[in-house]
Amino acid sequence: MTGSFQGFGLDGKVALVTGGSRGLGREMIVAFAEAGADVVVTSRKLEACEKVAAEVRERTGRRAIAVASHVADWAAQGGLVDRVYDEFGRLDVLVNNAGLSPLYPSLDTVSEELFDKVIGVNLKGPFRLTALAGARMVADGGGSIINISSIAAWRPGTTELPYAAAKAGLHALTQGFAQALGPTVRVNAIMPGAFLTDVSTHWDMEATEKKLARYPLQRAGRPHEIVGAALFLASEASSFTTGAILAVDGGRTAQ
Known about the structure:
Elements: E1 14-18, H1 23-34, E2 38-43, H2 46-60, E3 64-68, H3 76-88, E4 93-96, H4 112-140, E5 143-148, H5 161-181, E6 185-192, H6 205-212, H7 227-234, E7 245-248
Parallel strand pairs: 1-2, 1-4, 2-3, 4-5, 5-6, 6-7
């Protein structure tokens, strides 16, 4: 047997996570720092980002900065990437995690404003940030980009249809950018199922539990359970993986 396993470490790497101040984004930020990376926490609310960055510095001793940025703002993404390079001189891991799925009473009541907002955060923003960061990564000789999708992309429901369409588009971006940025930059997606984050506090839990009982693992995911997949795709452990859609959904899409 030739070669050696490179493992899940991120020593000396720099990672940027959008929507990094809460939920799955926060879990990935902390995990990357614990694996040895310096991190950039970004979302629209600077105070929330600063809180997570301070926690990371205290907990891991890694460098962590907070940057306020709205992912749907096309022009702002260049400034975000520049800030990362000004602070660290490099970017090795980008996670397009920020997401938005507003509720609506019926499909015919979906406004153009709501539709554009959902597409902006879930599809337009990741396209622009991946294009800009990916070009810099290629010039620097490599990197890993991870898109956080949703099982809604494969199992769309009527209550989240614009969101599902945007996430299906994110799958197309994942596979298209994998071709455009290869062979040095890898682009993959994690497709989570139901996770118990702050968003789940708005769910009808009785109905949700009945639905989850039909799935193989019969429960929702806990936030820390995203970490293994994220570390795999961010690190050299996935050195021969690009253009992949990795379901982390308790078996939902296996049905």
